[in-house]
Design a protein that fits this description.
Blueprint: H1 3-12, E1 18-23, E2 25-29, E3 38-41, E4 45-52, H2 56-64, E5 71-76, E6 93-96, E7 99-109, E8 114-122
Antiparallel strand pairs: 1-4, 1-6, 2-3, 4-5, 5-8, 6-7, 7-8
Amino acid sequence: MDLQGLANPLVESVNPNILVSIQASTGYTNTGPGYRQVPAYADPVQGFAQVQELTSSELRQAEGMNIQGVMRAIYFRGNLNGVIRPDSKGGDLVTIAGQIWLVVKTLELWPTFSKALIVLQEPAS
C-alpha cells in the first residue's frame, strides 16, 4: 500500500509540494589539500518533495546527536540517505530554492518514499 501516495494530496492542500534537486553521495575522493577527504556526489535528480518542521521527538533525536542549525524534515518519493559508514558515504545533498541542505539522518525508509532530517548548509545567495 502506498501510504505516502494516499496522504500527500491531503497534506498538499495545506503545504504544497516543492521542486527539489537531490544529489546522492557516492563517497569521497582524497584529492583535497593535505589529502583531506572531499565528498563526491552523483548527478542531480529533480523531484517534488514535502518539506515540514520537525516533530518534538525528531528534535530530541537531533539534540541527542548534537545536531545544530536550521533543520527540517523532508518527504521524498525515493531514497534519501545520511551517512552510511560501511559504504564510506556521507549524506545526500538537497537543493531547495538555491539553498543547499545536507541529509544527516534518514528518519523513515519505505519502498516508495523516505523521510529525512536535513540541515541547512548554504543559504541562497
